Amino acid sequence: DIYGPEAAFLTFTGPVFPVRTSRPNGSLFEPNRSNTSDRIAASEALTLNDESDGLGGDAVLDPNIQELGAAEGGFSDGFAVPFARDPFAADGALGSRLNSETGKLNTRLQFGKYAPVTIDNEIDTVPWETWTYTQLNGGIEITFTDELGNGRFAFAPLPEATYEDVDAINYIARMTEHTPEVVVQNTISRSPDFYRPGLPGDVLNFYYDLANFRGSDGQTTLEVYYGIPPEQVEVEQVADSSFIHVQAALALADEGHTAIYRTAQELFFQSGQGVQQTKGAFIPELLRTQIPPGKYELQVQLKDLISGRVGLYRQTLVIEDYRPGELQMSGIQLASAISDTASNAKFRKDDIWIIPMPTRNYATDQNAHAYFEIYNLQQNEFGQTRYKVQYLIRSSSMPSVGVFGAVASGLRSLLKSSKPQVSITYEQLGREEFEKEYVEIDLSKAKPGVNALKIIITDLVNGKSVDQEVRFHYGE
């Protein structure tokens, strides 16, 4: 884009953007220029004494090097003269093409004392360095130069352009667009801030699950359920008590990364009987936040504040909009227990306490528990609501590896087409458009392995139906 097809034969060994050349008397690309003073100055600069070579006496160049220099016309009086060889000398087709009226490559590449860093002039420039970012703004290159030779680098400046070419104005505009400082400013304006954290040390593995419900003021409530495995965190012993100290956090970024929603909480657990660190054991926790409906990138993090280990999971998430007036159903929260007696206040929903099951893994001696909410039930002429609830559990013989991540469509189809092992149906009467439902399901008839719980709600007043499905593992 900068130099056009005429520069295709060049080999760029440094930044593509032109930088200042260090030759004291002009541009690098000047065909047929004989510069004896440059050769003499270079020869004097390369005269070695006994202090510089450490050998004593005057240094003598290798005869083979002298012969090579003579063959290429790049040496004078037996001494090597760097940069004296003119890569565009008119000694063949290349020089002729450069001097032709049609090519004018010399004009296109010559900006006073500026030139791209190519194989012909890679050491004939001011000190430079270039930073390349492949994932910013489609890929960018930023060039810095030390113009004064004092060790201070800054953005490479815009070359001092000449106006010999008829297309000079357009060309200078393109050069301005590719000036490093302009490239950086454009990238800042077009690219959102995005932090990709590195995780030092061993990764902390933990469980998490989530469900969303209708919130207030048109927002949606997202609940993230944590399962903290004691075997993954450091347990501190003080006297006869055991302590676990962690920080749970979550962040949601909308599609344009223009809004970030965050919440975090330090959690402190104490046990006087020791902490059970067996495989599969976990401590349940919950973080709750309200956000507008839409598509988000969710990051769920758990940090052990004693050992410093961190675990981080990321997924794309669609937050449902519960504002429309038609029949709707919340997400399904799987639980290890539902009780009407006091427990952690976080787990309370009105007059019941729901203990999360973030592992979605039920043992053979456990029953499954589920909680969900129904919205916008229609009332009949007597002001009553009437609806039907169906619970269906289907099993799959497929292995459970990856079932709670990116599940293949074949597994979904198999779960839907297989005959349900558990089926429960009942009807309810009420007077509110909003109902809370929870159930305990005996899994003794379910097959060990991956299972899917499907809940179907039918409004018997207007005949409309909605459903939700959640997968879990049952058995060893």
- Range of strand content: 35-45%
* Spatial gap, N to C terminus: 62 Å
Q: Provide the residue-averaged pLDDT.
A: 77
Q: Write down the Rg.
A: 36 Å
Which terms summarize this structure?
single chain, 476 residues, mainly beta, 6-stranded antiparallel beta sheet, 5-stranded antiparallel beta sheet, 8 helices, 26 strands, elongated
How would you describe the overall organization of this protein?
- It is a single chain.
- This protein has 476 residues and is mainly beta.
- Helices cover 14% and strands 36% of the residues.
- The protein is built from 8 helices and 26 strands.
- The protein has helices spanning 36-45, 50-53, 63-72, 93-99, 105-109, 168-177, 180-190, 409-417, and strands spanning 19-20, 75-76, 79-80, 114-115, 128-133, 140-145, 154-155, 207-214, 220-228, 236-238, 241-254, 260-271, 283-291, 294-304, 310-319, 328-329, 333-339, 348-349, 352-356, 361-362, 368-375, 385-396, 422-430, 435-441, 449-459, 465-474.
- Strands 16, 17, 18, 19, 21 and 24 form a 6-stranded antiparallel sheet that branches.
- β14 and β15 (310-319) form a beta hairpin.
- The model is unreliable at 24-107 and 400-415 (pLDDT under 50).
Task: Give a quick rundown of the structure.
The chain has helices spanning 36-45, 50-53, 63-72, 93-99, 105-109, 168-177, 180-190, 409-417, and strands spanning 19-20, 75-76, 79-80, 114-115, 128-133, 140-145, 154-155, 207-214, 220-228, 236-238, 241-254, 260-271, 283-291, 294-304, 310-319, 328-329, 333-339, 348-349, 352-356, 361-362, 368-375, 385-396, 422-430, 435-441, 449-459, 465-474. With 476 residues, it is mainly β.
